[in-house]
Amino acid sequence: MRKLISILASLTVLSLTALGVRAQEPAPLEFALADFPPYFQLDANGAPSGPVLDLAAALFAEANLPYVVRGYPAARLYSRLQHGQTTVSMAGDGHPGMLAGALQGSIPVFNLALNVYRKPPQPAISTLSDFAGSSVILIGAYSYGALGEQLRAPQAQIEIAPATNHAAALQMLLHDRAPYLINYDGPMHSLLRSLPENSVASDPLLRMNVYLFVSRAHPDAQALRDRLDKALHTLEERGDIQRILDAAEYSQ
Fold first, then answer.
1. Which of 24, 28, 49, 146 has the greatest number of beta carbons closer than 10 A?
2. What does the pLDDT look like over 55-102, one tens digit per residue?
């Protein structure tokens, strides 16, 4: 009986020790984004996709931090950042909605590039007014933000030719459904590699660095931001960021 009591006591101590270890494990940080295609988007079932997921996995692994991914409408995301419910997010340099409740990182995660694609006989585009009287292919799933509103405004005199996805948009351009295509560099890069050299030209339209943002409501926001910046720097030094972007599969 004494031996049994001793064994039970030992098991109790081990159980309490295990519970103590689990209690000390940090809660996962919420990494959340608003819809940000083609780099991050949610499908009809709420499942996220896009290369930002792979970037986040590499980043938090390098920083040795547990995390969960969430997607929210923009206004809700900004509110969650201000209240500390969301800890980390990602957006363009100086994004006012983010800066209201978060610290911006010091190292860009990647550069968002929006280009105008055309067959070489077509003249280059330098300003939005150059599109007037012409037609432009846009991916139907994307809003293109303020630029999309300008392109679709009646006074712009631009005919929009909607495409269902990146591959379809390129085929529309190649088959002269419209003289211009506006699309992101990332998904176009792999598609253009399969074409003969100089069959499609591109002109830069918009460039923006994308940064991490850490909620100011986090108890040690600056230290967390610096820790993530350090991890990001290590990933970039190893070339991991570019490898992830080059290997990305874009769902739309």
1. 49
2. 999 999 999 999 999 999 889 999 999 999 999 999 999 999 999 999
